[in-house]
Amino acid sequence: MAYSEKVMDHFAHPRNVGELADANGVGEVGNSRCGDIMKMFIKVKDNVIEDVSFKTFGCGAAVATSSMATEMIKGKTLDEALKLTNKAVMEALDGLPPVKVHCSVLAEQAIKAAISDYYTRIGIDPLPIVGEIGDCEACHVH
Amino acid sequence: MDRFVYADNAATTRVSDSVVQAMLPFFTEHYGNPSSLYHIGQEAHAAVDEAREKVAKALGAAEQEIFFTSGGSEADNWAIKGVARKLGAQGKKHIITTKFEHHAVLHTVQALEKEGFEVTYLDVYHNGVVHPEDVAAAIRPDTCLVTIMYANNEIGTIQPVPQIGRICKDKGVLFHTDAVQAVGQVEIDVKDQCIDLLSLSGHKLHGPKGIGALYCRRGLRLPNLIEGGAQESGRRAGTENVPSIVGLGVAIEEACRDIPGRTREIKKLRDALIEEVLKIPRSRLNGDREQRLCGNANFCFEGIEGESLLLLLDFNGVAGSSGSACTSGSLDPSHVLLAIGLPHEIAHGSLRLSLGDYNTMEDVRHIAEVLPPIVQRLRDMSPLWDEIIKAEKESN
Predict the structure, then answer these.
(1) A14: which chain B residues are within 8 Å (Cβ-Cβ)?
(2) CB B381 within 8 A of CB B289
(3) Is B271 exposed, middle or buried (0-12, 13-18, 19+ CB in 10 A)?
(4) Residue from B22, B32, B47, B51 nearest B213 by CA
(5) What stretches of chain B show up as alpha helix (H) in DSSP?
(6) Distance from CA of B326 to the nearest CA of A (A)
(7) Mean pLDDT in chain B?
(8) Which strand (E) or helix (H) includes residue B235?
(9) How far apart are the first and last CA of chain A?
(10) B283 SS3 class
(11) Residue A14: closest CA among A49, A44, A53, A40
(12) What is the DSSP string of B299-359?
């Protein structure tokens, strides 16, 4: 198993890491049993993600996918951010080893969870917009 | 990178210079097949015999009881499957092992379970040490084999092999031990310790990879695992890996020459390392503090994940290993850490540092310097750590 240079770069120098003090949407996915927890903080204004940050407990790929995902949704509208797929995150990182694909799924879900929280806070039912946030399939292997 | 500290000697070791020198002539000068009659064949044959003597001497065994294999895994497979085939045919289809064996043993007995064998997996308790009385209690009339590792590869705990051997002998049950981690670090005498079968490997003791041996007590004839030519007294086919066999011989002789002296030096380093690392808040040492291999230090750090830790350590010139799911290639953390009762989230944050003959106090100081800020950096970005701190504040 080897990580791409981009994965190593995002792991060694994660972008947008930390807690966003004035976040108005926070989502957390994964669980400590699996060894990965991702927490995404977004600050939304006029339907645009003005700022975003993350905190992650997990492997190198988990940190790198969180970092890349924050970069990919910064400045985007909520609709655009919801269209971000785990595949796009993986491609942006020049791929992930097969056993690490679930990390990219978590990144996609973390964004959705943060956006859901934002809608809930402003009194809008997120379900029709964001949809169900399923568990990571990889977590059902055992 | 200014300094490189190799602290993964339980994974493999550097081949010693004297081992390399001893091996080299067998590639280009004495390259004959030991089965051939002409002189370079006979030179190779003599070298294999000499290496066999050295391995036998290191274990307190006779030369005829040593069979070279491709490594520890093959020796484990041969011993376990061999006994199972031999005694299973007589209706003895029960095997006793532990929950935290190496996969070479664990997966082998699991394969036998599918063939109708019943396996008892003994508890190893929180300190990672089997209770001999549990072995005695588990033995049944249909037990064909007790297979318990001499020392654990992840947490380094040394098992009470002499007591287990005595129990097995008294009860007339065969006893195999995977001693891959223990040879050269623990005084082993297969006769005194009542061991019927023992597996060992070359690359854990500054020998080459791809070579190992099975000690099989005289009079115990197991079915072959590898069929073919008449090598190894007709019991393990395949042209002998002469250079590696020579290397194993030299390596085991060096490793076993002065076990108390060698281990005393490594232990000093390990104890200093443990003392330094445990200064990190919410860290713990896994496995019994005293009854462990001289070079093994296995830690858990709450709130962080092992693979990230290894990557950052690598950036800082330190090579270690982890039992986290991410490094095991599955989603579950190490079965060894789960066997000693660690919860999943803590087992994910494990770090094994295993020191050896080439480490120095400078190495320990380097690790002690770079590790705490790495742990802190990962905790700073960990939502799990936030929860731990929050819970701590609430309970105060």
Answers:
(1) 381
(2) no
(3) middle
(4) B51
(5) 17-23, 25-28, 39-59, 72-88, 103-114, 132-138, 161-171, 231-234, 242-257, 259-277, 306-315, 325-328, 335-339, 344-347, 361-380, 383-395
(6) 6
(7) 96
(8) none
(9) 22
(10) strand
(11) A53
(12) EEETTS-HHHHHHHHHHTTEE-B--SHHHHTSSS--HHHHHTT--HHHHTTEEEEE--TT-
Task: State the count of interchain CB pairs (< 8 A) between A and B.
Answer: 77
CA of B348: which chain A residue's CA is closest?
A: A35
Amino acid in position B112: L
- In the structure, what pLDDT confidence band is assigned to residue A135 with cuts at 50, 70 and 90? low
- Please tell me the least confidently modeled range out of A77-91, A121-135, B225-239, B258-272: A121-135
For B205-222, the pLDDT digits (tens) are 999 999 999 999 999 999
Task: Determine the Cα–Cα distance for residues B122 and B124; give it in Å rounded to an integer.
Answer: 6
Q: Is B256 a catalytic residue?
A: no
What the block records as the tokens of B61 is 């065994």
Global pTM reads 0.94
Compare CB distances from B384 to A37, A59, A61 and report the shortest one's residue: A37
Looking at residue A142, its pLDDT comes to 36
Q: Which of B127-141, B287-301, B332-346 has the lowest mean pLDDT?
A: B332-346
Q: Nearest-CA neighbor of B154 among B312, B318, B350, B308?
A: B350
Using one digit for the tens of pLDDT, what is the confidence trace for B356-385? 999 999 999 999 999 999 999 999 999 999
Give the amino acid at B217: R
Q: What are the angstrom distances between the C-alpha of B183 and each of B56, B186, B251, B316?
A: 12, 6, 11, 31
The pLDDT, as a whole number, for residue A85 is: 95
Whether the CB of A9 is below 8 Å from some CB of chain B: the reply is: no
**Residue B14 backbone dihedrals phi, psi, to 5 degrees:** -65, 135
Interchain pair A63, B345: CB under 8 A: no
What 3-state class would DSSP assign to A66? helix
β-partners of residue A29 are: A38
Structure tokens that stand for A51 in this block:
């700022």
Residues listed for chain A: 142
A14 in reach of chain B (CB within 8 A): yes
User: What residues form DSSP beta bridges with B350?
Assistant: B300
Segment A116-135 mean pLDDT: 92
